[in-house]
Design goal:
Elements: H1 3-18, H2 25-45, H3 49-52, H4 67-79, H5 83-86
């Protein structure tokens, strides 16, 4: 996704805050699952580019990871998975009402 498109999308988030849609913690929580789902879809579509700037399978040394992490990363790479497939909730608390297990 071009950077300009992402900036336009981000401006919609600022609009929501400025015009009272998510201007309180309660309102934010009410919309959190919807916002998180949209972000997860965006990250899936761009192969978790923000993560892969540093955490690319190509540069991972699986031998330095815990055995379970190494195994899962190896399987994820073989299956063509992207970071957000397994790591929802790793950077932010998962929203209430989600049907997802906690991130690895």
């Amino acid at each position: 996704m071009p950077k300009m498109v992402r900036k336009i999308q981000a401006s919609k988030e600022l609009y929501a805050k400025a015009f009272g849609i998510v201007d309180t913690p309660k309102k934010f929580e009410e919309h959190r699952f919807e916002m998180a789902s949209r972000e997860w879809e965006r990250m899936k579509a761009n192969d978790s580019q923000e993560c892969r700037n540093c955490h690319n399978f190509e540069y991972m040394d699986l031998t330095t990871q815990k055995p379970v992490a190494s195994k899962i990363h190896n399987e994820a790479e073989d299956a063509g998975k992207t970071c957000i497939d397994c790591h929802k909730g790793i950077a932010h608390q998962l929203p209430k009402g989600h049907k997802i297990e906690k991130a690895i």
